[in-house]
Design goal:
about 120 residues, mainly beta, four-stranded antiparallel beta sheet, about 0% helix
Length: about 120
Amino acid sequence: EVQLVESGGGLVQVGGTLRLSCAASGLSFDEYTAGWFRQAPGKEREAVSCITSSKDKTYYADSVKGRFTISSENAGTTVYLQMNSLKREDTAVYYCNAHSFQNDYWGQGTQVTVSS
């Protein structure tokens, strides 16, 4: 059974940092594109960042470029999202995703709240 478990969310002030983790069981991020998505209240889920299984390509939404960094570590079992210089508009539930041509898996989400 595949499971993706996010952690690291919480309440942080504007300008602060958080590091989200996504621990995978039942699959390896060495074989899946790993992504972070977020959904704010009343808004659609949007892609934040992703990294290919070979780790040679990354994508960042324009709104987070230069502030967030995605990485895949621990022999493909964990994906991180380092979030710096957080803004109020980063407040959302953040979801981890593992994607291949055959499968798509999601975690349960972790809440990030940025307050002023």
